[in-house]
Each structure stands twice: as C-alpha cells, then as structure tokens.
Recover the amino acids of this structure.
C-alpha cells in the first residue's frame, strides 16, 4: 500500500487494518498477520506496526494474546460501530475536498447524484 | 573480539600471494639467463661448469627477490594501517601492529625456504656432470675420514653464533619495518594537524625532516651500532648479544611509538 | 527500550578545521534511524567516530556504557568501501575475510543475501559496478550479528527496485534489539521504515525527532528536512 507522507504511519496502518476488518477480509475472531509479516508486507518498521496494534488493542478492536499474536474482536457490535466511524470519516474528508472547490454540502449532494446517474448511463 | 591468530593468518595470506609471484619470477628469470649461458659458446661458464649454470643463475637473483619482497611487504603493511577495511577489525592496536610485522617476517622466512628448495632443485642437473660428482664425492670423503664428525660440523657451524645471527637478522627485519611505519604514521599524523593545503608537499618535507632526525639519532648510537658488524671483536658471541640487545631496544621503542600513533591518531580511510 | 549508544560533547577537528562541534546523541536499541544532512555535513565522520575509526576527538562515545575501541568495533557493523582489499579479490574471498575476522559474521545469512543480490562468488571486486559493490557492502554488513549497524549512504548507486528489496530484507532480518542508522543526503523511499530522524547541520545535530511526530504535525519527512536547511539559505 502507498502511504501518505504527512500523516503518521501508525495511524495509516490502523486505518488500513480497520478497512480490512470492516470489509470482512479479516473476520471476527481471526488472527491478524504477525507484526513482522505486516512490517514486510507494508514496508514499514516493526515498531510502527506494534504501535498501531497496541492502539487498536486499547480500543478493543484487537485482542493481543501473549505469544499467540493479535486477534480481531468477536464483538460484532464494536466492528459495526467502527465501520460507521470509517464511513463518517470518508464522508467528511470528501466534503472537505468539495468545499475547497466551493461546493456547499447541498450542492455536493446534487453533483454527486448527477455524477452517479451519468456513470450508470455509460 | 578477533584473535591475534585470525588476523595474523589473514594478513599473512595477502603477503603470501606476492611470495609465490616473486619466487616464480626469480625462477623464470634465472632459467632464461641459464639457458642463454648454456647455449652461448665461450660465455660465463666453461664447458665443465655448464651444468651448474641453472643453480648459479637462479641463486644470483636471490638478493633482488628478497629486496623486492621487503619493499612489497612493507608497502602492504602501511596499506593495512591506513585502511578502514582492516582497521574495523575488533582487535587492540598492539596486536594489530604485531600481527602485521610478524606476518611480514614469517612470510619472508617462507620465501627463504622456497628459495632453498629452488636451490636444491636447480642443483640437480649438476649431478649429471661427472666432474662435479667427483668433487662432491671428494668433499664427502674428507668429512667421512674425520673421527669426530660432529665436532667438525660444530666447528665449521658454531650453533651459538648461528642462533645469534638469526636473532640479529630477525631484529633487523623488525627494525626495517618499524622505521618505515614510524616514518609513515608520524608524518601522516603531523599533516593531519596542519592545514590541508599542499598536503602532499608538506608531508614530503616532514618526511625529509624525520629522516634527518633519524640519521642524527642513529649517528649518536653509532658506537653501539658498530658492534653490529660480524666478528670484528674477539668474543663474537658477546658482541652479538650486545648488538642484539641494542637492536631489540630500538625495536621496542619504535614499536611503542607506532602502537601509540595507531591507537590515538592514525585513522583508516 | 534501553539506551544503546551515547555520544556526549563530541568535537572533532582535522587539518585545523572543525568537522563536528559539541555533538550529543542518544540512541535506543531496536530502532531504525535516518541520519540526514548535506554532503560534507559530517555524517560520515560521525559514523567513523562512533565505530572508533576516527581518532583524537574530544567527548565521549559509549556503546552500552562501554567506550573501549575494541568493544565498539566488535559490536558495531559499519559499511566499508573495501578499499583495503585489492581489485583482484573475489567475492568469495571477501566473505572469507569477514568470516575469519568478525566472530559475529553469519555465513548462511550472507549466502542468502548474496544470492538475492545476484552476486556470485567468482566475481572480482574490480569487475563490480558501483551498485553491485554497494550491494556487497550492505550484504557483508548485515550478515554480522551486531548491536548497531551503520549504513553510510548505502543506496546511492542502487536502482529503486533493488532498494525496496534491500529495505525489505532489512525488515525481515533485523533482530528486535539491534539498531540501524542509515545516512543519506536526501530523503528517499526509506522514510516509511523509519522510527527516528536525526538531521546534521552546521557541524551539529540540528534535530532528533520521531518520524511519526514529524508527520503528526502535518509535515512529510522531506518537507521537514528541507525546511531545516531552508533557513540556512536565507542568511
């Protein structure tokens, strides 16, 4: 994956893992790849991965079992909630960028609808 | 931490290469000259001596080969003191210094052994000549008639003096390498404390000054060094012991200076 | 995370010129650190002092609290240009040289690195291209089981594809408690693997921060590095 250079890497790793979980690529109760494996896959530092996993552990999304690795929580309620957060985040980011183009949220919605219709027409 | 033995072996390995090359060069050059002498009429060798030509020619090149070895090994020594590749090795400066000098000397002795071997091989054709065989046989006879054979041997080759001479040779070899190293390391260290403009010229001048100081010092030690000469005193062994002591002392002083310079100042690049 | 390397009040002069002035640096174990600075800023000298190759400096350099030269050389692996070996030396002989002289050298690790860097044992040093030679230097250095690795501008002649693969191999093989310091004069693809960034400027350490702390302020490492040097240009 490609990292943005002006956002802490551990935050981006967290987001990456949330997405994996939200999309069901890593299922509730399933083991997350090892720290070293993740570090190599993402070309990042082991310490950075550890920091991201620790953060997710405190939030309850992951459960770190000593000597076994990290597992996704079986609390589907929590995962759903996290998914909502993620959607919210993406929306607000989207609105921020359209605001920079001078679009109000209402106008954005209008444009978005138009855009989707056009895409369907193609 | 690296052991002395491991470093000694690696340093020796690098020097051994030049030994084989030098010995081969000596053999080839000697052989070419010997062939030329063999086939030219009225040359350096009379017909009866011709079987000896190979031996004589190869042996003639011995001092040149040995001098070439001293120059090459001294150059290799200095290269290693100034090389980061070698200086990164985790070992104390004193062991580094000793391993370098001793590996140069041990390989020098190895070269001498090879040369003795070459001497024996190149002498073999001489046995083809009847005249030379007779000569050897006569010498043998002369020895054989002696009742006290070993007495005769020890008279012609006094063991005490041979050992002293060998020690003198070793100490002298150490001295040669030490002087070169002291000149190299001290001149480099001094240049490091001066501006780096014209550094090559500056180093050359420093080198001249150091050599001058060296000559003055050795002149003052002249009285003692005179005794280095072979057998010009009545008691040869005592003279040897004295001169060896002096040389050992100088070796130790120069060695200490070199180790100090290596430890505190001289950097590998 | 305990303190691995301590540099205190380090001043180094050569040919009457000051190259490093009152440098202080603390490094913990288990980190990957970039040492950034312009050419001639003193990065190489700093590394040479740390590994006890550069001499006659003021100040202290301690590795695990031990300042002795032999201890530092035994536990720090630094990339070396191999100039001390002749051009006719084969890769296999260089390996033997390292294996015999560094007790922490792991031949099986070197074999893996060597084959993955496409170096063969019969190649002679003089035949290697710049990039190949740098690969060999990195492979030799990483094959030691050191506490601290100093990689001095290791990637300058290596193509980006190989760089990525070497970085991956570093991530795979680095033991948890060893630290790697990588020097460079520009910020390249190594940024994502960094824990910390140390910037050398004006003979001193101008900044020593955690990489994610720099990013948390909305700067990329590159922007931050350039901004530090930009002040200089204004003068």
């Amino acid at each position: 994956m490609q990292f943005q250079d002006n956002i802490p890497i551990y935050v981006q790793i967290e987001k990456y893992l949330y997405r994996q979980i939200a999309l069901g690529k890593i299922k509730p109760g399933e083991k997350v790849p090892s720290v070293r494996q993740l570090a190599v896959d993402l070309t990042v530092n082991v310490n950075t991965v550890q920091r991201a996993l620790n953060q997710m552990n405190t939030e309850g999304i992951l459960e770190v079992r000593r000597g076994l690795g990290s597992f996704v929580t079986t609390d589907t309620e929590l995962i759903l909630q996290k998914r909502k957060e993620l959607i919210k985040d993406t929306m607000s980011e989207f609105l921020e960028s359209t605001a920079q183009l001078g679009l109000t949220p209402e106008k954005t919605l209008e444009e978005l609808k138009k855009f989707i219709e056009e895409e369907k027409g193609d | 931490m690296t052991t002395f033995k491991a470093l000694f072996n690696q340093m020796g390995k690098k020097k051994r290469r030049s030994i084989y090359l030098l010995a081969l060069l000596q053999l080839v050059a000697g052989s070419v000259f010997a062939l030329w002498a063999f086939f030219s009429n009225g040359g350096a060798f009379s017909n009866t001596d011709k079987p000896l030509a190979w031996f004589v020619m190869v042996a003639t090149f011995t001092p040149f080969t040995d001098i070439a070895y001293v120059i090459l090994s001294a150059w290799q020594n200095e290269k290693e003191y100034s090389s980061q590749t070698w200086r990164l090795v985790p070992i104390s400066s004193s062991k580094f210094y000793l391993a370098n000098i001793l590996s140069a000397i041990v390989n020098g002795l190895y070269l001498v052994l090879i040369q003795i071997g070459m001497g024996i091989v190149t002498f073999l054709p001489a046995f083809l000549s009847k005249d030379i065989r007779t000569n050897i046989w006569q010498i043998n006879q002369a020895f054989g008639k002696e009742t006290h054979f070993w007495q005769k041997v020890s008279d012609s080759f006094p063991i005490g003096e041979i050992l002293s001479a060998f020690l003198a040779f070793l100490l002298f070899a150490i001295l040669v390498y030490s002087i070169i190293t002291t000149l190299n390391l001290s001149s480099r260290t001094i240049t490091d404390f001066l501006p780096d403009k014209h550094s090559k010229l500056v180093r050359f001048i420093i080198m001249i000054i150091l050599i001058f100081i060296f000559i003055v010092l050795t002149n003052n030690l002249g009285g003692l060094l005179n005794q280095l000469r072979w057998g010009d005193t009545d008691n040869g062994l005592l003279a040897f012991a004295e001169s060896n002591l002096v040389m050992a002392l100088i070796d130790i002083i120069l060695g200490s200076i070199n180790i100090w310079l290596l430890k505190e100042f001289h950097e590998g690049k | 995370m305990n303190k691995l390397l301590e540099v205190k009040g380090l001043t180094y002069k050569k040919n009457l010129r000051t190259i490093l002035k009152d440098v202080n640096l603390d490094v913990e174990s288990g980190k990957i650190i970039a040492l950034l600075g312009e050419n001639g800023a003193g990065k190489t000298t700093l590394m040479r002092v740390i590994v006890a190759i550069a001499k006659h400096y003021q100040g202290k350099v301690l590795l695990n609290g031990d300042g002795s030269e032999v201890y530092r050389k035994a536990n720090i692996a630094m990339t070396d240009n191999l100039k001390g070996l002749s051009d006719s030396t084969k890769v296999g002989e260089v390996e033997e040289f390292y294996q015999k002289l560094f007790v922490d050298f792991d031949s099986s690790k070197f074999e893996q690195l060597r084959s993955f860097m496409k170096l063969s044992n019969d190649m002679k040093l003089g035949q290697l291209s710049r990039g190949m030679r740098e690969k060999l230097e990195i492979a030799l250095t990483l094959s030691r089981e050191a506490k601290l690795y100093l990689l001095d501008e290791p990637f300058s002649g290596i193509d980006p594809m190989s760089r990525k693969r070497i970085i991956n191999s570093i991530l795979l093989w680095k033991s948890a408690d060893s630290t790697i310091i990588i020097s460079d004069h520009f910020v390249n693809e190594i940024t994502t693997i960094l824990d910390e960034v140390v910037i050398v400027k004006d003979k001193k350490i101008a900044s020593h921060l955690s990489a994610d702390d720099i990013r948390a302020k909305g700067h990329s490492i590159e922007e931050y590095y350039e901004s530090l040097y930009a002040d200089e240009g204004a003068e």
